[in-house]
Design a protein that fits this description.
- The complex is a heteropentamer, with one copy of chain A, two copies of chain B, one copy of chain C and one copy of chain D.
- By secondary structure, chain A is of the alpha/beta class.
- Helices cover 44% and strands 14% of the residues of chain A.
- Chain A has 19 helices and 16 strands.
- The N and C termini of chain A lie far apart (46 Å).
- By secondary structure, chain B is of the alpha+beta class.
- Chain B has two domains: 221 residues, Rossmann fold (3-Layer(aba) Sandwich), CATH 3.40.50.300; 118 residues, OB fold (Dihydrolipoamide Acetyltransferase, E2P), CATH 2.40.50.
- Chain B is built from nine helices and 21 strands.
- In chain B, strand 17 and strand 18 form a beta hairpin.
- Chain D folds into two domains: 58 residues, no CATH class; 207 residues, Orthogonal Bundle (MetI-like fold).
- In chain D, 66% of the residues lie in helices and 0% in strands.
- The longest helix of chain D is centred in the first third of the chain and has 40 residues.
- Classes of the chains: A alpha/beta, B alpha+beta, C mainly alpha, D mainly alpha.
- Chains C and D meet through helix 1, helix 4, helix 5, helix 6 and helix 7 of C and helix 1, helix 2, helix 4, helix 5 and helix 6 of D.
- Bound molecules: adenosine-5'-triphosphate (2 copies) and magnesium ion (MG) (2 copies).
- The site of one magnesium ion has 2 residues of chain E, from helix 1.
- Chain D: Its main location: membrane.
């Protein structure tokens, strides 16, 4: 790794990701250990006849904790050679000088043929201020999941695609008639953490027509912000959502459990929910009849055509990027490994035939074919999706948004909450000059 | 004031230890009564059962005419002074003395006054504002007494009240205590393992051994005529010499020497039977030259008793101790002869005193004699 | 001693220094931190969240440590003082178990206990649907912390009660004192030193206890965002290490005040007993 | 018993009757004897009732305490054997599958071993250093020695907090203690020592000096005194501290996580976090099972220590 | 074996307490030497300074011919028995006794054997595997002795070795200790505040008061001719009567009664000067009828001493105590008369004994006499 290889003859590299065998993101961990490393070593041997020594620092913790550890490593001038960073960390790490644009680290950066396979929108995941810092590893999209059985029970169609927030509310009101069922689960509050922002406020805000960060400024008390909070108000004050669930530390887990038990009608989540939560075998809240019961629909704009860029629908995407540590001893080799990990072949090996949205269009075309849901996301959602700003302040803004939704859920009016959100925002982003309405 | 009567009072501790074994005892009204015995014999247990701090496992207990067997300690009208005095270190002397009154909800002014008066009687007036830690052992003991006296109980119970004092203070406190009890006239039971203390202070003594009373009587009864070898070896500032002997027609043969039979058991011994011949060191007269009917030996230890000497002779009868006048020269290694005072020698058979058959002699053990 | 200097004194002083900077883990401020003097302190003292968390922490410490652990621990120690055998061993073992089990495990136990839907407590009390952690968040973490920490007080007081001479208690009983009077007049004055040691340590520990975060994550609506949770969020979730360090120092100062109060009481006792 | 006016006066010395004359209690009892008897009986009755109430109260309280302390443990006993555990302690669908999965996990079992190393190492270090320091502090009359202890105690509260992670991390980096279990042990020990010294000093203060002095008269060196006399005598205290610090380390996540690199070295506290999904959801089946496994060593240690060395405090600041 | 010599030995504690004030003292080789005095007079400090547990603040200390003033305790070849015995609670009796040998690096087999032998001499063979907590007080004391003996030191130091025993055991232990020391012949210094113990055991006694030696002599010297009123009131199982008097031509007038002047100070008293007339209770003879030259009073307290009675008279001279034979009837409230044995009365002027000017009388205080 950086700070000294194991010898003059063999270069050594360290990969780090928040993944571990037998635990969190097990698949990725196994892939790195069992596929990437041996294949890359062999590949180098064959190609250049050099021995490389690649190792993997596994971990399986909260993202914040993983981030903290990486940051501590990097500020001390050490750290792994290749690391997985969440897309939104790119900015703050870049600002701190922990990572550098790929072109500054590696001469060959722009000449990787894989770039062509990654859509512009997805490339933003690994970029900051129009510079590429890393290669996106994968992405996702947010949709509305719903329970077809419950819809039928409520007298609604099993196939559903709302076109506006009003239609969403209508469906919810119909669901409200069923005993013991929460019509909508819209994440809110601080206990949900980033899920509130990412699987709640931000996609809705995009549907109301705005980005939280635009042209160098943060959104304050804009109409779209107020409207979005207004939707929360409608849902939670009319008994369409469960306010208490939003406050529980394990609220999100419980919402999954409840959805799987057929006690929630509509749920705004990412495709992760489909793959890892209600998956009949691998899920943590498995639904044996997932394919029959769980429906999905794009998140509607407040009204048709009122979403960002005049869209009818909106979504948000996240995902991580793999980055080269600028302090690495062998940047070219590291970049070679990085591109190796992002090759079509490698990604397919990672998925082992399982469906999952990758950053590469060529790969997606093959692997998603069998999964209608993920195809749906790749084809219909990704083109309209948006990304969070990768800035150091974002975390704190996100916290403010969480607090704002919590405040609405507990009964304050959207108007008042929006105003007080703006006030607090000033303190967080360094004054009114950085805020726009 | 009240007498204390126990009837087959028994205490068995949870572990199964039978600390009191059917104790029958009457402590007369106004009497100064000592409980004496070796460590672990049940003295403290008896005292605590009287106080109500331990519940009896059987039998009954009266104080005055009232059956208090099941009465809680606070309602028995007794006061107890503990071995460590149990003075509350955070309270001043005045507060300590007034404490029982405070618990009895006596008004502040009244109790301050009463406490000051009681403390004054015991010469503590100058120390009222001090804390126990700032007092000498003797003063502490008086504070504990004052506290016990403060609410005029009908019975005082003392558990080894003097054993924490140093030798000199113990003597002073002893005299003081005796005088005080005489003046107050309150029924008092006190526990000690120091026979000298018991002899000096008590009107009557009960000598206990493993939960039973082995002898009960006045100090001189107990001292002069211990009812059994246990009491004999326990009482006396120097323990009684207890020598194995065999009854012969003209005396008792001890280690080959024929000692004259004491008058009392004279007619009650059977020729040839094995007995124990008991004689106190104080009643052996020293002789530097051989005398018939004496115990011979070599001087092994000489201990100075102040105005006298305690001499240990080693001879055929084993170790024999005798008290010799301070002016009599005795040197280590000398040969010496100890001549018993015949009227003070006692004979024990199977551990029990052989008496003239006079019932008072036997009655001393078990029944409550007159004081 | 070197160990203490290296791994205690040195990091502590460094933290104090960090508190004077605007250091952050990421972003521009990570690249070149500036010494901003007392700005962090200024910010903290005018921050509602700080004062909120201070008030909560004081409630938490007072409720769970001073009143809860100390009182429950004492009560158990007092009632068990003369007991031997299986009952005492069982009680002590259970209480101690709560103390030694890792906090990440016991939080799960409590989450399961207090769960809204299938929680054991709701089943027992027949109060289905009561979300204890939401409706009574502070009470919940206070009870939780009592459960978790009563063992220390229990052990300390058990030892302390062993130092109370039975004769003192009995003197009071003979005078007719009831249990309360015995405690007030005899036991408490006697074990004051232990009480203060106990309060000092458990207050300090509770003040620094992060475990409630695992139970409530500071919520709902920051209603359980006690100081260590606040610091955790500032330092780890927001990466504002300078600010976090400053709050740590403030926390130390508050601890110091508490310790001084205790020591004052201690000194009074010392004067009184000589 | 209330006061009796008729014997309030202390007889003066002159009218003290010779004690030898005993007054036999014959004839009708004095007028207030009847009153006293009733009073005593009533007191006895009241006491009996109070005792019964106290007995009921005692057992109620003990039952409550037992329930309070055992209820939460229920889940730990049930969930690991449940095929599909939720947060409710329901009757399980019995399975040992969860244990199988953990057994196959590459880190789970090993992490318990690592925890033992870290906790054991820290425990030993803390016990050893705290014993030495507490002994020194207890026996040497240093001006401001108590002050020093308090200051250390307070500083330890900073160092065990989150905000000190940068200094600790950089310190470990400088000392090349990253990815070393020794580093974790040292850092943790630094934070635990003050409290340990504080508690142990009470034990030391409670040990009679005459023990050491008699050994000194025989010519024992300070080391011999420590080894032969002090350590065996304060063993319950050492055991207490040992268990306490082991329990502290056993549950500590942040420090080992930050300072260790290779998952092979992770202790159980860190590995426990791996049983969450990429979305941060707990895999309750594995977590409950692992919780049980994770708890067993500390419970065993506690049982061992408490049966072997006793588990008692001498406690309290003695002045 | 070795003598102990101190030369102006001084110990000032950090707080400023002058616990030893220029002590000059020689303890002869093989002597059994007692340090006696009230609580806080510095006895323990002197013993600990000899042992090396306290560093002296001034003066020097020799054991044998070696100056050990600055020698660490382990190298002084002394053994100390502490008041609380300081038996190591975690070691068995055998391990405790063997501990000094272990420190001296004696091989395991050898030291086990030696320890067993020493313990055997003291009758501890049956208890070798027990721990101290399982022994009675007397047994514990013997273990402490055995441990002290195990490495054959040249000096024994005992700090109140008997004060933790109960009254009966104390007597037995006393005799045992005396015999043991006699047999071993090791120089022994022991501390006590019990004058009876000191008189009974010691070859010589030093009576201390606030860091100074007030008298030094054999037990009978100290008992019969206390050099000052402090020693006079301290020594004796019943304290000496010290009565204020005025010198008259034909005797000493005490409370209006003329008592004959003792022979010794006779020529050295000035007419009309104030003195203190000292007479022990043992040397007052009781008379129920008035006798000239006697002290009159009313009997206030009678304490039974076993074979005698201690009677306290209250009269014009205050309280006077006398010892009366057990057979003499004395009742409370009687009038009694105490006749001094003229040859045993002492006269003190300004607290110091008035002597015949014979140097031996004075020499008893300060210089070291013969054993
Ligand atoms: N609380 C208790 N539980 C069990 N056994 C006890 C208890 N208290 C005393 N004993 C036992 O009861 C017996 C009598 O004890 P007690 O304290 O009355 O003796 P004592 O005569 O006062 O002795 P000492 O002179 O040592 O004070 C002893 O064998 C003792 O071990
Ligand atoms: N470590 C110490 N620091 C300060 N003063 C001390 C110390 N030890 C003893 N003293 C004081 O020195 C004086 C002599 O004490 P020492 O213990 O020698 O008396 P003692 O004759 O042995 O008394 P006791 O019979 O009570 O044991 C006392 O006034 C005591 O308070
Ligand atoms: Mg007793
Ligand atoms: Mg002493």
């Amino acid at each position: 790794g950086s700070g000294g290889g194991s010898g003059p003859d063999t270069d050594s590299l360290v990969i780090s990701a928040n993944a571990i065998a037998g635990g969190k993101n097990e698949q990725e961990a196994k892939w790195i250990e069992e596929w990437v490393i041996p294949n890359f070593v062999e590949h180098k041997k064959e190609k250049d006849d050099v021995d490389v020594d690649v190792s993997f620092d596994a971990s399986g913790v909260d993202d914040e904790q993983y981030k903290t550890k990486l940051a501590l490593d990097l500020q001390g001038g050490s750290g792994p050679d290749i690391m997985n960073l969440d897309g939104i960390w790119i900015g703050e790490f870049a600002q701190a000088g922990y990572i550098k644009p790929l072109t500054e680290v590696v001469t060959q950066a722009d000449f990787w043929e894989g770039w062509d396979q990654i859509p512009e929108a997805v490339q933003k995941l690994g970029s900051f201020e129009n510079e590429r810092y890393g290669i996106p590893a994968g992405t996702d999209g947010r949709v509305l999941f719903y329970n077809k059985d419950l819809f039928e029970q409520a007298g609604l169609d099993r196939e559903w695609q709302p076109e506006s927030w009003d239609e969403l509310i209508e469906a919810a009101e119909a669901l409200a008639g069923i005993d013991g069922v929460t019509p909508v689960q819209l994440n809110a509050g601080t206990a949900m953490g980033e899920a509130t922002t990412m699987q709640g406020f931000l996609p809705l805000l995009a549907g109301a027509g705005e980005h939280i960060w635009d042209k160098g400024k943060w959104r304050g008390e804009s109409d779209a912000v107020t409207d979005t909070l207004g939707l929360y108000e409608t849902i939670f004050s009319d008994g369409l959502g469960d306010p208490l669930l939003q406050q529980e530390a394990q609220g999100r887990d419980k919402s999954f459990e409840q959805f799987a038990e057929g006690r929630i009608g509509i749920l705004l989540e990412g495709d992760y929910f489909w793959r890892s939560v209600v998956h009949p075998e691998l899920g943590i809240a498995p639904m044996e009849d997932r394919d029959e019961v769980v429906g999905y629909a794009k998140i509607p704009a407040i009204a048709p055509g009122k979403g960002i860029h005049g869209q009818d629908y909106a979504s948000m995407s996240g995902g991580s990027a793999r980055v080269v540590n600028p302090e690495t001893d062998s940047p070219e080799l590291a970049f070679e490994l990085l591109t190796f990990m992002n090759s079509d072949e490698a990604l397919k090996a990672l998925l082992e035939g399982e469906a999952r949205i990758t950053a590469r269009t060529d790969t997606n075309a093959d692997v998603l074919a069998d999964d209608p849901m993920l195809t749906f996301v790749a084809d219909e959602v990704l083109p309209i999706t948006a990304y969070r700003p990768g800035l150091a302040e974002y975390t704190r803004v996100s916290t403010l948004l969480q607090e704002a939704t919590a405040s609405v859920v507990s009964g304050n009016s959207a108007q008042d909450v929006a105003a007080s959100y703006r006030d607090k925002l000033e303190g967080v982003v360094g004054g009114a000059g950085n805020i726009t309405n | 004031m009240a007498a204390i009567t126990t009837d087959r009072l028994t205490k068995v501790y949870p572990g199964g230890v039978r600390a009191l074994d059917e104790i029958d005892l009457t402590v007369e009204d106004g009497e100064f009564f000592a409980l004496l015995g070796p460590s672990g014999c049940g003295k403290t247990t008896l005292l605590r059962t009287v106080a109500g701090l331990e519940e009896s496992s059987g039998g009954s207990l009266h104080i005055g005419d009232v059956d208090v067997t099941r009465t809680p300690p606070g309602s028995r009208d007794v006061a107890m002074v503990f071995q460590d005095y149990a003075l509350f270190p955070h309270m001043t002397v005045a507060e300590n003395v007034a404490y029982p009154l405070r618990i009895k909800k006596v008004a502040r002014a009244k109790r301050t006054e009463k406490a000051a008066a009681t403390a004054g009687e015991l010469g503590l007036s100058d120390y009222l504002e001090r804390r126990p830690g700032q007092l000498s052992g003797g003063q502490q003991q008086r504070v504990a007494l004052a506290r016990a006296m403060a609410c005029h109980p009908s019975v005082f119970l003392f558990d080894e009240p003097l054993s924490n004092l140093d030798a000199r203070m113990r003597l002073e406190a002893r005299t003081f205590l005796k005088r005080l009890q005489r003046e107050l006239g309150v029924t008092t039971v006190f526990v000690t393992h120091d026979q000298a203390e018991a002899l000096a202070l008590a009107d009557r003594i009960a000598v206990m051994e493993s939960g039973r009373i082995r002898q009960l009587g006045t100090p001189s009864e107990v001292f002069r005529r211990p009812a059994n070898t246990f009491v004999a070896s326990f009482i006396g500032s120097t323990p009684m010499n207890l020598l194995d002997g065999v009854v012969r027609p003209r005396g008792i043969e001890v280690a080959g020497e024929l000692l004259p039979t004491p008058p009392e058991p004279a007619g009650r011994l059977v020729d040839g039977e094995k007995v124990v011949y008991g004689i106190r060191p104080e009643y052996l007269v020293h002789s530097p030259t051989a005398v018939p009917g004496s115990l011979a030996g070599e001087v092994r230890v000489v201990e100075n008793l102040g105005h006298a000497q305690l001499v240990t002779l080693e001879g055929p009868a084993g170790f024999v101790q005798l008290v010799v006048d301070e002016d009599t020269p005795v040197a280590l290694g000398d040969r010496g002869f100890a001549v018993p005072r015949q009227d003070r020698a006692l004979v024990y058979r199977d551990g029990e005193l052989v008496t003239s058959g006079d019932p008072t002699g036997l009655a001393a053990a078990g029944a409550s004699g007159t004081a | 001693m070197l160990l203490i200097v290296a791994f205690l004194l040195f990091p502590a002083l460094w933290t104090v220094y960090l508190g004077l900077t605007d250091y952050q883990l990421t972003g521009f401020a990570a690249a070149n931190p500036q010494v901003v003097g007392l700005e962090n302190y200024d910010r903290a003292l005018s921050d509602d969240r700080f004062s909120n968390s201070l008030v909560l922490t004081l409630q938490f410490v007072l409720g769970s440590a001073v009143l809860g652990q100390a009182v429950l621990g004492f009560a158990i120690a007092w009632l068990m003082r003369n007991r031997v055998g299986a009952l005492r061993r069982t009680v002590e073992a259970l209480v101690l178990l709560a103390w030694i089990l890792p906090s990440s495990v016991i939080t799960f136990l409590w989450i399961a206990l207090l769960d809204r839907d299938g929680g054991t407590l709701n089943a027992l009390l027949n109060t289905p649907g009561t979300a204890w952690l939401l409706e009574y968040p502070m009470v919940s973490i206070i009870v939780f912390n009592i459960w978790k920490g009563a063992a220390f007080s229990m052990m300390l007081y058990a030892a302390a009660l062993g130092n109370v001479p039975p004769s003192h208690l009995e003197t009071a009983r003979l005078a007719g004192a009831g249990t309360f009077q015995q405690l007030r007049d005899v036991v408490f004055p006697r074990i004051k030193g232990h009480v203060l040691t106990n309060l000092l340590l458990i207050s300090l520990w509770t003040f620094n206890d992060f475990t409630p975060f695992l139970l409530t994550a500071g919520g709902p609506e920051n209603r359980t965002e006690i100081m260590p949770v606040f610091i955790y969020r500032i330092a780890l979730e927001s990466g504002e290490l300078g600010f976090g360090a400053a709050i740590s120092v403030l926390m130390l100062l508050i601890n110091l005040v508490i310790a001084l109060v205790y020591m004052r009481l201690l000194r009074q006792r010392k004067d009184a007993s000589t | 018993m209330t006061s009796h006016p008729d014997h309030a006066a202390v007889p003066s010395a002159s009218d003290a009757a010779p004690v030898a004359v005993a007054t036999t209690p014959s004839g009708p009892p004095p007028p207030d004897a009847e009153h006293r008897r009733r009073e005593a009986q009533r007191a006895a009755g009241r006491a009996g009732a109070r005792k019964a109430v106290a007995g009921i109260g005692f057992y109620t309280f003990v039952s409550l305490v037992l329930a309070f302390f055992s209820l939460p443990l229920l889940w730990l006993a049930v969930a690991p054997f449940d095929a599909n555990p939720g947060l409710s302690a329901s009757l399980p669908e019995f399975t040992l599958q969860n244990f199988r999965v953990l057994w196959d996990n590459p880190y789970a079992m090993r992490s318990l071993g690592n925890s033992v190393i870290l906790a054991g190492g820290t425990g030993l270090l803390v016990v050893a250093f705290a014993a030495l320091a507490a002994y020194a502090l207890s026996r040497v009359r240093l001006p401001g020695r108590d002050m020093l202890l308090y200051v250390l105690l307070l500083l330890s509260s900073i160092v065990t907090g989150t905000a000190a992670m940068v200094p600790l991390f950089n310190l470990a980096t400088e000392l090349r203690l990253i990815d070393s279990q020794l580093g974790v042990i040292l850092v943790l020990s630094g934070g635990l020592l003050p409290s340990a010294i504080f508690i142990l000093k009470d034990f030391m203060d409670g040990t009679p000096r005459s023990y050491e002095e008699s050994a000194r008269v025989f010519g024992a060196s300070p080391f011999q005194i420590m080894r032969d006399i002090v350590v065996p005598v304060v063993r319950p205290g050492l055991a207490t501290i040992g268990v306490w610090s082991v329990a502290q380390v056993w549950g500590n996540f942040l420090i080992p996580f930050l300072l260790l690199r290779s998952p092979d070295q992770y202790p159980a506290a860190v590995v426990m976090y791996t049983f969450y999904t990429e979305g941060g959801q707990a895999n309750l089946a594995l977590i409950s099972t692992f919780s049980l496994l994770y708890s067993v060593p500390v419970i065993l240690m506690f049982l061992f220590v408490s049966s072997r060395y006793g588990f008692r405090f001498h406690g309290g600041i003695k002045r």
